[in-house]
Amino acid sequence: MAGGNNGPSNGHPSTNGHRKPGKPPRYSAFSLLKHGLAPRAEWPRAWRSPALQPSYDVVIIGGGVHGLATAYYLAANHGITNVAVLDKGYLGGGGSGRNTAILRSNYLTPEGVRFYDRSMRLYEHLAADLNFNVMFSRRGHLTLAHNDSSLRTMRWRAEVNKLQGVDSEVIGPEEIAKLVPYLDTSTSTRYPILGALYHPPGGIIRHDAVVWGYARGADSLGVHLHQNTEVTGIDVAEDRVIGVRTNRGRIATRNVVNCTAGWSSVISDMAGVELPVQTSPLQAAVTEPVRPFLDTVVVSGTLHVYVSQTDRGELVFGASVDPFTSYSMRGSLEFVEGLAGHVLELMPALSKMRLLRQWAGLCDMTPDYSPIMGATPVDGFYVDVGWGTYGFKAGPVSGEAMAECVATQRTPEIIAAFHPGRFETGQLVGEKGAAAVGH
Ligand code: PYC
Question: Does 100 contact ligand 1 (Cβ within 6 A)?
Fold first, then answer.
C-alpha cells in the first residue's frame, strides 16, 4: 500500500450532513496550521450523510474507487447528479483500501494497454481535478524475468506497449542493479535475474486519498453517499431493472451499476445475470518504516512477490492470490512465511526488517484475467466487475467509461473489448501474461 498506507482504512473522514453540495473546501497552509493549533477545532466534514431517497436516477452498488469514480464522472461529465452510491460497510473498505496501490499500464493486449494508459493519465491529473492531494508518485516499475519464457513475454509486452505509445523496454541485469542496488542480481541465486520489463511511467499513489477525493468530489456535485447500506435484492420486471432493495428500504431506479469486488457475482445474481467469476483472497503486508532506499516498484512473478516503499518508509509487499476460493479476509502465517522467504531471495539485506501488519482483500478472477464491463442483457443493469488483482489502478478510467456508458446508453470504445458477452462468443482478452504475480 502506498504513501503511508497502513492496510484497510478506518473510514474517515466521514459526514454529518451539515455541508451543502457545492465547491469542496480549499485549505491553505495557514488554515491547516490554524486548525492544528486551535483547541477543539471543528473540521468541516468531507461529505454529507443525506437521508436515503425513495428513488434515484442511478444507483451504484459499491463505494470503492470504481463506484465513487463512476458517480463523480456521471455528475462532472454528464450532469447526472440524482445518483446514490451504496456501500454495505464504509467507503473504501473493500479492495480500494486493501490493495498495494501500484499504478502501471504495461499490459499484454492492445486493449489492455490503451485502457490502463488512460487510467494513468487520469491519475496524473487527479490531484488537480479533485483539488485533493492523492500523493501520486511516478517512480518506475520493474517486472523481473527469471527464465527464458518470462523474458520472451517481457519482450512481447514491450513491443505491444511501444506500439500503443506506452514507455516500456526490456533491460538487463546491469541496468537493473543500477536502478535497485539492493536486489541480488548475482548468478548464484535459485532464480537468477535474467532481465526485466522496465516501465518508467509506473508508480504508486495513496489509495485512501483517491477514495476520499472522489467521494468528496461526487458529494460536492450532489451525489448521495450511503454507507452501511447493504443491497438485499434487485427488482427486475420484463428484463428491466426497476428498483433496489436494501437493509434501509427500497429505492426505485431504472439504472443500477454493479461496482462491487468480492461480491460481484452475488450482486449480479440478484438481477439474474450470471458472471464467470471466482473469488479468492489476496494477502499483503507492510514493514516498519526505514530510510528511503527503494524508489522503484519491483515485481517478481516467479517468486510471487511485489514490493514498493511508501513515502513514509514502509515496504509494502504483496504476493499471489491464496490458492483457494473464499470470501474470508483473514491473514495467514503461511503467507508471511512464504513471502519473507521469497523477499529475502530477492533482497537478502532486508533480513532484519520487521513486518508490522498483514491483511487480505478479495479478488474476483475472470477466465481471461480482464474485467467485465458494460451493459448486460437486463436493461438498466450495468457491470464494472471481475477486477482480479488489478482493479485499483483502473479506477479512474472505469469510472469515466461506466459513466459514459450509463449516460449515453452506448458502450465507449475503450471498454468495448471487455463486454460481458465475450465468454459466450470466445472473444477473450487474455491478460494472464501481464497480470503479473496475482496468480
Ligand atoms: O497488477 O500491478 C498489478 C498488481 C500489483 C499487485 C497486485 N496486482
Answer: yes
Domain-embedded: residue 207: yes
Q: What is the DSSP string of 212-227?
A: HHHHHHHHHTT-EEES
Residue 355 φ/ψ, nearest 5 degrees: -80, 135
209 within 8 A of 133, measured Cβ to Cβ: yes
- At 250-297, the pLDDT tens digits run 999 999 999 999 999 999 999 999 999 999 999 999 999 999 999 999
437 CA distance to ligand 1 middle (Å): 7
Residue 208 domain flag:
yes
pLDDT digits (tens, 9 = 90+) for 393-422: 999 999 999 999 999 999 999 999 999 999
Residue 12 pLDDT greater than 50, yes or no: no
Mutating to test ligand 1, I would choose from 5, 98, 102 the residue with most ligand atoms within 8 A of its C-beta, which is 102
Q: Answer yes or no: do 102 and 231 share one domain.
A: yes
pTM for the predicted model, two decimal places: 0.92
CA of 102 to the centre of ligand 1 (A): 6
Query: Residue 304 is part of a domain; what is its CATH number?
Result: 3.30.9.10
CB of 361 closer than 6 angstroms to any ligand 1 atom:
no
Distance CA 336, CA 328 (A): 17
From the CA of 59, how far away is ligand 1's center (Å)? 29
Pocket test for ligand 1, best of 299, 300, 369, 392 (most atoms within 8 A of CB): 299
pLDDT attached to residue 99: 97
pLDDT in tens, 369-387: 999 999 999 999 999 999 9
Cα(361) to centroid of ligand 1, in Å?
13
Q: Is the CB of 102 under 6 A from ligand 1?
A: yes
User: Which of 15-24, 42-51, 139-148 shows the lowest mean pLDDT across its residues?
Assistant: 15-24
Per-residue pLDDT at 436: 62
- 28, burial (CB in 10 Å: exposed 0-12, middle 13-18, buried 19+): exposed
